[in-house]
Please model this.
Amino acid sequence: MKARKIREGIYWTGAVDWDRRLFDSLIPLPDGTSYNAYLIQGTAKTALIDTVDPRTVDVLLSQLETVQNVDYVIAHHAEQDHSGAIPRVLEKYEGAMVLTTPKGKGMLIDLLCIPEERFKTVDDGETLSLGDKTLEFIHTPWVHWPETMVTYLQEDHILFTCDFFGSHLATTDLYVTDEPRVYEAAKRYYAEIMMPFRKVIQKNLEKIESREIALIAPSHGPIYDRPEFIVGAYRDWISEEPKNIVVLPYASMHGSTQKMVEYLVSALAERGVTVYQFDLSVTDIGKLAIALVDAATIVIGTPTVHVGPHPLVFYAAHLANALRPKLKFASIIGSYGWSSKAIEQIAGLIPNLQVEILDPVVCRGFPREADFQALDNLAVTIAEKHKEHHLV
Ligand code: FEO
Model:
């Protein structure tokens, strides 16, 4: 795709990656993604904000073909989907300097072997004049790595945010046109990438909110010309209050755990609790992450394999622990053949979760009347706990 004009002297110069289906060999991309770079041409100097993933470097270079000079490459983030084309851009523009945070400089040298003399680090709040346009650099650590920053274009009130507020969405829309679709993609992005840094993001949001913002231009997905849409969504996602939701990831080998899951889901639904049930053998792990954004309770369902939880359950528990959602309660249900240490092993996998553990329900073989009664009790407890916390 060709470069696209946003304002006088401001261009989108990114690449849309329609067919990418996996990021970091981990994160599913059902809707592809984009790598957005932005060219800012002032009356005196020209800056390129971020670059693109190396797999699409030719797209960026063709967009820059008629651009005679780039003085600065602003590197918001060292991850290669934004920084990976910097070496090629520096080859083309021999006088260009990379502007980044002090941490960013070290990481870009480590990851991309960029020579030290091509860098100038910028302080938090530092400004740079391009002539008629002024860039203000705002350090915003942990959106997504510790070195990240954003840039505010003062005259045009545009905030360039890199991963912050991004969405993995391949689209020809320069601006958000379908808010529900972008909401889902941005929530998935937040859940998978940003949620572990929820508390730092609260501070970063406060830091940027004092500015007048006409556009939020992230480096993934479309530009927000109604910034309050995505800022409001983030405020909700990072809030301390979960919702009246149970997330139930599980595996089942011969149907016993499956039976328990189905019974518990029904018992919770009867009591007015919303449940998201995920069979880990088929689920999109991103959907599980999205559900964890708002959930108050996680119930993990597992059969017993070699005395411990099913390997898929290990993975899901590790993921939930790493994402640090705002869960308040947790429990475990499942079945075993002759002996099990599944409860102890799962509990050991979730030390980051600040949760109250509710009595697990584990049965030998297929569940029977007493087990169903125990599941009813668990459903009652969860519903009461949610009510006590006034969760809606
Ligand atoms: Fe889009 Fe953290 O890179």
